[in-house]
Design a protein that fits this description.
This protein is an alpha/beta fold. It has a single domain, classed as Rossmann fold, CATH 3.40.50.2300. The chain has a five-stranded parallel beta sheet, sandwiched between helices. The two termini are about 20 Å apart.
Length: about 120
């Protein structure tokens, strides 16, 4: 990985919003690294957050959230469905928040900006 001080680790369950995430990371001066949650796999060094990108695959993301071990970084579920029940289910399964894109893009940006500031 190129040298950066802050990374966004991504579990890419869907290609939705890939371009938006890449642009957002660039604005934040962050790198994006894909992570596969296999047994025993540690988050990449320098990862400040974990995003589960699940546009159209929200149900699979909820299952995965329930299986992930605890992590020292915030984790967020990013989907396409603006549904408060889905958001509540994500939080119950360990997500810090749920963002429905494109509507919540600015909120996601502000959240990642805050996380980056706090990590640096």
């Amino acid at each position: 990985m190129p040298e950066r001080d802050w990374w966004i680790a991504v579990v890419q369950l869907s290609d939705s919003f890939h371009v938006a995430l890449t642009e957002l990371a660039g604005e934040l001066g962050a790198g994006v690294v894909e992570w596969r949650p296999e047994p025993g796999a540690a988050l990449p060094l320098g990862a400040g957050v974990l995003l589960l990108m699940a546009g159209g695959e929200e149900a699979a993301a909820l299952e995965l959230l329930a299986e992930l071990p605890s992590a020292p970084v915030p984790r967020y579920l990013v989907g396409a469905l603006p549904d408060h029940r889905l958001a509540a289910a994500a939080v119950r399964r360990g997500a810090h928040d749920y963002f429905a894109l494109p509507d919540d893009l600015d909120l996601l940006r502000r959240t990642l900006e805050r996380d980056a500031r706090e990590a640096r």
